[in-house]
Amino acid sequence: MRRLMLLRHAKTETDAPSGQDHDRRLDNRGRSDAGEVGHYIARHPPFPELVLVSSAVRAQQTWNLVWEAMQDRVPAPEVETLDELYGAEPAELLRMVRMASSSDPKRLMLVGHNPGMHELALMLAGHGDKASRKALEDNLPTSGLAILDFDIKDWTDVAFRRGNLARFVSPKLLRQMSKD
Fold first, then answer.
1. Which of 2, 26, 74, 163 has a Cα at 20 to 30 A from 152?
2. What are phi and psi of 55, to 5 degrees?
3. How far are the Cα atoms of 90, 134, 144, 151 from residue 41, in angstroms, in the given order?
4. Is the dihedral of CA 169, 173, 178, 180 positive or negative?
């Protein structure tokens, strides 16, 4: 069994001071949302063993805030920054997931960007929780987390439609759940 966690970066400023999209930073809501998702992950094991993070400033900041919220309760994962995650399409993201077989974590997290992350989540989710699938169909929002389980022995066996969407959460859904 393998678990893949797809986390989209948190909400950002519209433009970076440098004018470069890669340099956009989190805004106040993004910083808050990233921490909220980190707290959720810390309360819902199993936890990632390897985290692959886009080199974009917003993805790096998102991971740092998620980890800050988790670190007192979760074993430290191995973390790698990958330039290739920035703007990656689903096929390229799938290739990165399959390459994780070299270090063979049981639980892998990607911190990246739409539209690739949303499209990958939809393409991998062959079945799973109906409410989560419905919510994910529309969008993988900023700080959105799609958790997929695969009944496989090696990451090289991950394929489209073979994943079970175990959970989908977003800051908005977490706020709604806390009101119920």
1. 74
2. -75, -10
3. 24, 21, 12, 21
4. negative
Whether 78 contacts 102, CB under 8 Å: no
Q: Please provide the size of the chain in residues.
A: 180
Q: How far apart are CA 69 and CA 91, in angstroms?
A: 31
Edge-first strand listing for the sheet containing 78-82: 78-82, 50-54, 107-112, 2-8, 145-150, 163-169, 125-128
Task: Quote the CA–CA distance of 124 and 94 in Å, as a whole number.
Answer: 9
pLDDT tens, residue by residue, 93-128: 999 999 997 788 999 999 999 999 999 999 999 999
pLDDT tens digit sequence for 73-92: 999 999 999 999 999 999 99
